Amino acid sequence: LNHEDIQIYISSPGGSITAGLAIYDTMHYIQAKVNTIVVGMAMSMAAFLLASGTGKRYALPHAEIMIHQPYGGMQGVVSDIDIQAKRLLKTKAQMNQMLAELCHQPVEKIAHDTERDYYMSAQEAKEYRLIDEILS
């Protein structure tokens, strides 16, 4: 594998947790440093990936970042819904722990802040330690 730094430019409303975690695992598996740069917006899983950069994590000055708990829709028989709900709660705890480590925040703060949509400007994301620098 090439060991040069990789730049990932993010402008996304988010998406699948499973797909996002596959990207996260790849970013942390490869030897190259992965710099993440938000241009426009990084919401939901995109914000998680922004924070997951293994190099520097950047935002443009007017970028908007949003974190929240996982979304999930369920249908089926009650026993299947119960299984899905337990899995989603486990995923929520896992994502909170990972984001706490990435942002150097107590997991309790992350859990509180992600109970609802939590929007941040680039400056607020820097103070939250979700990014390292604001590019200007």
Automatic annotation (TrEMBL):
Key word Ribonucleoprotein present: no
Keyword annotations from UniProtKB, A to Z: Cytoplasm, Hydrolase, Protease, Serine protease
Source organism superkingdom: Bacteria
Keyword Transcription regulation found: no
Catalytic residues of the enzyme: H68
Pfam families: CLP_protease (PF00574)
Gene Ontology biological process: protein quality control for misfolded or incompletely synthesized proteins
Substrates-to-products reaction catalysed: Hydrolysis of proteins to small peptides in the presence of ATP and magnesium. alpha-casein is the usual test substrate. In the absence of ATP, only oligopeptides shorter than five residues are hydrolyzed (such as succinyl-Leu-Tyr-|-NHMec, and Leu-Tyr-Leu-|-Tyr-Trp, in which cleavage of the -Tyr-|-Leu- and -Tyr-|-Trp bonds also occurs)
InterPro entries: ClpP, ClpP/crotonase-like_dom_sf, ClpP/TepA, ClpP_His_AS
Entry GO MF terms: ATP-dependent peptidase activity; ATPase binding; serine-type endopeptidase activity
A Gene Ontology term for the protein's cellular component: endopeptidase Clp complex
Family assignment from sequence similarity: Belongs to the peptidase S14 family.
UniProt protein name: ATP-dependent Clp protease proteolytic subunit
